[in-house]
Write a structure and sequence with these properties.
It is globular, with a radius of gyration of 15 Å. It starts with 7 loop residues before the first strand and ends with a helix. It has helices at 36-47, 52-59, 63-83, 100-110, and strands at residues 8-10, 18-19, 31-34, 86-89, 94-96. The chain is 46% helix and 14% strand.
Amino acid sequence: MPRPKCYRNICGMPDKNYFKPRGIPIVDLEEIVLNLDEFEAIRLADYEQLYQEEAAAKMNISRQTFGRIIEAAHKKIADVLLNGKALKIEGGEVNLNETKACCKAKRRKTGKNN
């Protein structure tokens, strides 16, 4: 029997969930899917500039698991940028955590109240 999947905590859903190169029709593009947990890992590590251990704690996962998630996310983003592919952000086993502390950190960085 396989081990049950662990749900990862994310702070919120992205405002935009699809990116593509300019001037190329969508039908001509290969699409890469970035899971919501990978998106959250990018946000915490690269945008919030947290150490992997701190980011892993916020997502309720081990540091090793966080390392694997961020590595996969970086590889997908590099593939999109280097090979002119579309990026779709969706899916994954996640728990949406919109606590005051989480939302407060998001507002501080973006200046938004929601």
